[in-house]
Amino acid sequence: MKNDDIIPLELGAGGRLAAEWIRDEVASRFAVAAPDGLPDAARLPRPGGDLLFTTDGFVVQPPVFPGGDIGSLAVHGTVNDLAVSGGRVRALSLAMVIEEGTPKALVRRALDSARAAAEAVGAPIVTGDTKVVRRGQCDGLYLTTAGIGEAMPGFRLDRRRFEEGDAILVSGTLGDHGMAVMAARERLPVSDALQSDSAPVLELVEAMRPWAAAVRFMRDPTRGGAAAVLNELAEGAPFGAEVREADLPYRPAARALAELLGLELIRVACEGRILAVVAESAAGDILSAWRALPRGREARRIGRLTRANAGRVVMETLVGGRRMVDRPQGEPLPRIC
Known about the structure:
The protein is an alpha+beta fold and 337 residues long. The chain has eight helices and 14 strands. The strands form three sheets. Strands 9-11-8-12-10-13-14 form a seven-stranded mixed sheet. A five-stranded mixed sheet has the order 1-2-7-5-6, with helices on one face. The chain has a two-stranded antiparallel ribbon with strand order 3-4.
């Protein structure tokens, strides 16, 4: 077969190839109407309050990494997709695909971690499934989680509400998860300070509720990192995103490893952060509310929306220049979620 007739690894990396595949091959087949882009969770209208529904697969390698493992990661990923869609999780499912020969201790650890992570956000795991495949047919342990939640009142997340000068905020340092997984996979001798940021963001979203009407957009910058989300919010919009490199929050350990490997942390995955577009009038209050929480202490304003460079992301560099930040084409860190 020709190269364009087979699935490349980069298709699952959350960049341009993934977006085109979902738009052209997946959403088109299921009549998914998404004039404003595909959300992290589907909204199911009902009297008395809408429901939100999401699902996700997790194939991270190695399955145990500094700051977490595949079990807690699977719960956090699903809880966070609901949270950044304006929802509070109510129940989860957990399905496992296990390779023959996988140590039971690894599976038990993943299950215990998933249970603890779910209990921490008050979301019981209520159903699931287990499949075992022959040796070599999967890579140890794959998890799939789904979650259902209730929409929080007040949030109206819609890119069509963007306005000139809206602030772009992030709730903490960028790229920690991807760099921690990279270090564990390659067994790099790095500082103990390099830890995944895998964590629930529900508390951060709930802290925004007094200013919910001012929140236009939220995402958790997983595959493709903040660069992918910035391009998503700008694509096809009458506004561009302008960010300042000096304002991007990075941990020294993650920055040092990224520089050593020639990677840009703005393109590296997080698993416990929010990137949000909010009205300028509410930006200071939201940052203060985030910084009052343990997981939001390093929250920053990183940029703004502008009609200049509509549909694009422009970065003001440390030396005062300007350059484009494109949507990632591939992913230097496969299997980070």
